[in-house]
Amino acid sequence: MAKADLTNAIFHDDDKAREHLESILWPSGAVCPRCSARGDRITKLQGKSTRPGVHKCKDCRKPFTVTVGTVMERSKIPLSKWVLAAQLMASSKKGMSAKQLERMLGCTYETAWFLFHRLRECAIEPTPRGPMGGANKVVEADETYVGGKARNAHKGKPVPKKNAVFTLVERDGEARSFHVTTVNSKTLKPILLKNADRASLLMTDDSRVYPPIGKEFKGHASVNHSDGEYVRKAFYYTNTVESYFALLKRGVMGSFHSISEAHLYRYLAEFDFRHNHRHMSDTERSDALLSGAKGKRLTYQQPREAANV
């Protein structure tokens, strides 16, 4: 796949970046974010005192730009930096830290941190979604823990809390990850029944939490990790979901170093998004990320408050 050209004007020229966003969010022309009017009901304002990109709706008589009603609304960050940050997030398999983005964009750490969190909101898939899998398809399910290690705890500080992550991966398909408070049949069953088609073959390890849930599916098979079994007959394995976890943990340890429990769902959405759009080029993936900006207004205080929960 062709790599993105970071010398492209959309990463350095705000007018070009705005036009790029308009092509993604308004593929058929400008749409009023308040009343959804379009076509001849929209006028592009072009006066000398009007900033570029402003339109006016003839129905609700309100001016707007492509960023209104999106995560970019009222942002003081130049649009070219928004587009560049989306490109960097979409193309970084293990994620990128806000500190690295701070250096690359020449902004403050707080700006980079908030920008990435708003882009992670773009990565959250719309709900409700249909179940994954189906007849003659395999859905792998597994859980893992992310967080600090006891040996890395500072003297006099508590051991960092590990958070449980439960992930479903359809072979050759999508991934869906969830932060769960505890790992047992009671917490995992509703997630599986809502997100996996019961006509699927459920594939898990030998954990005792899965047999009661497996009865709800067309079939349930497992590999006995306790006895060192990881693949049986080249078909029975959970390597797909384990590969997902390997990438997630490399991101946590190598890029982010730590993740707040309050924000974990956003990081999981980021990794799910890259997995689910893995067959796209980096540029196509970046455009898909930006297309999720609609209807996801997020203020700086919201993620800050979540971090202090």
Automatic annotation (TrEMBL):
Pfam families, A to Z: DDE_Tnp_IS1595, Zn_ribbon_IS1595
Positions of the ISXO2-like transposase domain: 131-276
Origin superkingdom: Bacteria
Name of the protein this chain belongs to: IS1595 family transposase
Organism: Pikeienuella piscinae
